Amino acid sequence: MTPASRKAVRQRMLLLRQSSVDHVGALTGASDSDLKRFRHDLLSSDVPDALLDRGVSLPFTRELPQGALLYLLVRALRPHSVVETGVRPGYSTAWLLAGLDANGAGELTSIGPGTSAGRVVGTAEMTVGQFVAPSLRGRWTLVLGNAEERLREVLEGRRVDLFLCDNAIDAHRARVELHTAWPSLAAGGLMLAHHVDASPAWAEFCQAQGLAPQLLDPGPPPMGALAVDRGVGLSRS
Fold first, then answer.
1. Most buried of 46, 60, 209, 210, CB within 10 angstroms?
2. CATH number of the CATH domain containing 204
3. Would you call 82 helix, strand, or coil by DSSP?
4. Per-residue b or e along 85-123, where b marks 16 or more CB atoms closer than 10 Å to that residue's CB
5. Mean pLDDT of the chain
6. Number of domains in the chain
7. How confident is the model at residue 125 (pLDDT cuts 50, 70, 90)?
8. Which residues are within 8 A (CB) of 28 and not within 5 positions of it... i.e. 6 or more apart?
9. Are 187 and 229 in contact (CB under 8 A)?
10. What is the DSSP letter of 45?
11. Cross-strand bridge partners of residue 107
């Protein structure tokens, strides 16, 4: 990657829509001053450069343009327990872990490998967790196997503050994961789903809660968000 290309990818990683930042504040109760401080911390961090050094390229920032938003959300929510499904090279994983590391608290459990269908070309050939720097792995547990079975095991007897369904491309997987994880979310907990336009699963899930489909960020691809016990309406998809 040329220096100019590297600079362009780095800049793209750090892009944030103000409307999505406002949604983070509404979902977490974080103040504007806190959100500004978290953004400043991110701009001065080595997270983007570490990702570039581990092989992140422009296609990954196009598939998940919400990396910096995940970091901001973790900083604002200050979750103790985070669970994600669908991990492959670990782009979203790295951003979540970076937020936990900056908070100095919290742990992430990632369940995978997720499907490579509809994902960046070459994703299947990458090592699971390739983008996660060694310095971030102290807060990380990687669980491999059937996502449906392993998710139930991971959630048993546990309260989760933040759950990310990164298998929303697959309608069946998404339905199972969303309905399995929702009862395990703590009060004030937050559920996220990526690629919510790829199947009807997210819209169906929100409707089951008596809400229109909720979006954190329009993407593309769009990311949905739903908070427990807050009743916060975001934007319609």
1. 60
2. 3.40.50.150
3. strand
4. bbbbbbbbbbbbbbbbbbbeebebbbbbbbbeeebbeeb
5. 90
6. 1
7. low
8. 73, 76, 77, 190
9. yes
10. S
11. 81
**E strand residue ranges, 145-237:** 160-165, 185-194, 214-215, 223-227, 235-236
Query: Cβ neighbours of residue 178 under 8 Å, at least 6 residues apart?
Result: 165, 191, 193, 201, 202, 205
Q: What does the pLDDT average to over 227-235?
A: 57
Nearest to 168 by CA among 218, 236, 214, 224: 224
The whole-angstrom separation of Cα 108 and Cα 81 is: 6
97 occurs within a structural domain: yes
For tokens 């109760």, the residue is 29
Q: What is the pLDDT of residue 216?
A: 96
At position 106, the amino acid (one-letter code) is G
| Inside any domain, residue 236 | no
Residue 156 sits in which domain range? 3-230
Q: What is residue 237's predicted lDDT score, i.e. its pLDDT? A: 35
Question: For 213, phi and psi rounded to 5 degrees?
Answer: -55, 125
- Evaluate whether residue 182 is within a structural domain: yes
Residue 204 CB coordination number (10 Å) = 15
Q: Which two tokens stand for residue 235?
A: 């934007």
